[in-house]
Every structure is written in C-alpha cells, then in structure tokens.
Amino acid sequence: MNKEEELIRKKSPVNIRNKKASFEYFFIETFTAGIVLTGTEIKSIRLGKASLVDTYCTIMNGEMWVKGMNISPYFYGSYNNHDLKRDRKLLLTKREIQKLESATKQTGYTIVPLLVFIDPKGRAKMDIALCKGKKVFDKRQTLKEKEDRREMDRVMKNARGL
To answer: Helix H segments across 73-129?
Structure first.
C-alpha cells in the first residue's frame, strides 16, 4: 500500500476496523475490494453503523463473499431495509481471487476483512488480508510488545516534560 492509498483511508469519513484481526492473525498480503451493497446498506455504512466482528471471507464459484458482516438497518429505510448479516459479494479481479483461493487451500491460512472505508468517489471499499493464524505464544508476544511500546511512550513523555 503506497502513501496515496493510505491517505485516502485516513481521510475517509468512515473507518470501520476489525480490531481483533491483528491480535489473532499474521497478515501475509492485503487487497482492496469493492462491496456490492443495496441502497440502505450504503447509507448505514456512511453513518458508521457496521461491524466486522466475527467476519470472514470465502470463495464460492470463483466469487469472493464476505460472511457475518453486520450492517445495522437504516433508520429511514421502512420496508426496503436489508437483512443484518446477509452474505455480501466482494469485487476483486479474477487473478486476485485465484491467488487467494490457492493460498487458502493450505492449512492455517484464511481471508479476513480488516477495514471498511468510503473512497473519494463515495463507494464502499473493504481491505481484506490473507492471514495465517497465531499460536497462543505469538499472541502473548504481541501483548508484551504492545505493553513495551506503551511503557516507552510513557517514559519518553515524562522525559520531555522534565
């Protein structure tokens, strides 16, 4: 991901993250995919009413699908509202889908959604990653590194204040 793409994600009015993913998995490779949504779904996402908790991606019939993504009903949607946790199609190139499909056939690899954001043209996009699951000792190591980083920041902040 280059700096321009990173800037687009930071400027996006909506940043819905899967916070648990970095704790549970090692990211091998990331991709950006479009999401096929209905009218009330995109309106709910623009309001930030979505969640990526317990969400995963799967490949069926040469198409990428995201399962378990919760998008709350749009308040003004009336009878046209969508299902909360329906499967949603992701738009990737054929080559990317084939690459991900061959990688996930290996044991221990999966595809996990990381971030939902709105691009400058107003379309919903999702960052997904090919991941390998962490073992328990890897998770402990991640927590230790996080605590060490916090401690270093605290020490540096106190040193500047003196």
So the answer is: 94-104
